Amino acid sequence: MKKTKAIGAMILGFVLLFSLTACGANASAGDAAGKAQEAVTEETQEPGAVEPEAADRAGDSVSEGNGSDAQAEEAETDTLVQESVDASTQNSATASAETSTAAAPTSAAASDGDPVVYFTSDISAEGLVRIYDRLGWTPSGKTAVKISTGEPPASNYLRPELIKDLVKKVDGTIVECNTAYGGSRGSAAMHKQVAEDHGFTAIADFDLLDEEGEVEWPVTGGTRLDRAILGSHAENYTDWVILSHFKGHAMAGFGGAIKNVAIGMSSPSGKVLVHTAGTKTSGSIWYDDQDAWLEALPEMVSAVRDHVGADHIIYINVMNRLSVDCDCDGNPAEPDMHDIGIAAGFDPVAVDQACVDMVYEAPDSASLVERMESRHGIHALEHGEEIGLGSRTYQLVNIDK
User: What is the largest distance, in Å, between two alpha-carbon atoms of the chain?
Assistant: First the structure.
């Protein structure tokens, strides 16, 4: 009985001592535990790596700080203490790994069969060429580079100095269509002047796709559209680089690859057709059924994919100057979140979805998230997946690593 009480008292003593050590009461044990935590922190910068030897040293120091005898009962108590330290350091490692993944995502795939989206945080001319090279894609003929020329005077369009090396690498022609809402890009003469003022004509040939008329390409399997109406010059190009500035949008919630094709390649009447979910080709672009017109976006893109061929199109989204407003707004809200990087792939749904996911993971994206959610912007991607345009699950490959 006395021996049982002594053992119980000894165990209680070790538990109390460990509690005091965790609170910093025992200096030598606290220092050792601190060293163990430092070792774990260093290792968890490579997620999943934990240094058990550091935790062992902490446990040993707890025992040595007591000056206790090496009895069997003490050994059992040390084992319990060690397990507690191991569990704590493992949780710390897991938390660090999760934080690292959110800051620089490396994978978002459900299976190896999902499309690959490449990512780099290097938003520069060199980074843009590097991610293009990673795609392993070479155009087979005349190449169009579809951008937004940006509404004056202060929109966040992709600057010529950023894109010029890529445009030259593919020997591309920068292409655009006139707007359906007037502004400074509502006519060919005005739009060409904007392209010159913004520096695009200095780095490549510039072509307004609808300057000489329109062409219709059929939509197969759509619920909102039976055709897409594009600028007639679209027929002159065999290969397409859809180079998009990912950002918010007052009507769609966000704009990326899908919007750059669906609205950006449509002639003015084609823009009205998409904006009104296939109901008209002239008049106001405002429409009272939000989900319906969002569904028209991927349906128009499917017409381009089917006509051109999926192997002849690549999609690159640049996530910088992440305003809640589109580049069709000449005076957009100032971005209140940090730049993220560049995403690229062959699947427009996957590329846009990856950008959406990275915005959600960013710690300072509340304004843009609110804009996307308030417009139900994700529905365009949901419908894009439903009609077979692409996949919302993907493999994200960080080429910086």
Answer: 103
Domains and CATH numbers, the chain: 2-103 (no CATH), 116-398 (3.40.50.11440)
Question: Which residue is listed with tokens 């108590």?
Answer: 77
221: confidence class by pLDDT, cuts 50, 70, 90: very high
Q: Are 128 and 316 in contact (CB under 8 A)?
A: yes
Q: Sign (positive/negative) of CA torsion 94, 97, 98, 99?
A: positive
Asked if the bond preceding 268 is cis, omega within 30° of 0, the reply is: no
**Is pLDDT of 152 > 90?**
yes
Burial environment of residue 29 by CB neighbours within 10 A (0 to 12, 13 to 18, 19 or more): buried
Give the 3-state DSSP-derived string for 254-311, with helices as H, strands as E and coil as C: EECHHHHHHCCCECHHHHHHHHCCCCCCCCCCCCCCHHHHHHHHHHHHHHHHHHHCHH
Q: What is the pLDDT of residues 52-74, one digit of tens each?
A: 333 333 333 333 333 333 333 33
CA angle 74, 77, 79 (to 5 degrees): 110
CA angle 139, 235, 256 (to 5 degrees): 65
Cβ–Cβ under 8 Å, residues 271 and 285: yes
DSSP 99-141: HHHHHS-----SSTTSPEEEEES--SHHHHHHHHHHHT----S
Six-digit token string for 292: 């319906």
pTM to 2 decimal places: 0.74
Q: Who's near 12: CB < 8 A, 6+ residues apart?
A: none
How far is Cα 359 from Cα 381, in angstroms, rounded to an integer?
15
Q: How far apart are CA 128 and CA 247, in angstroms?
A: 17
Q: How far is CA 253 from the centre of its chain?
A: 15
- Give Cβ neighbours of residue 165 (< 8 Å, ≥ 6 apart): 125, 126, 128, 129
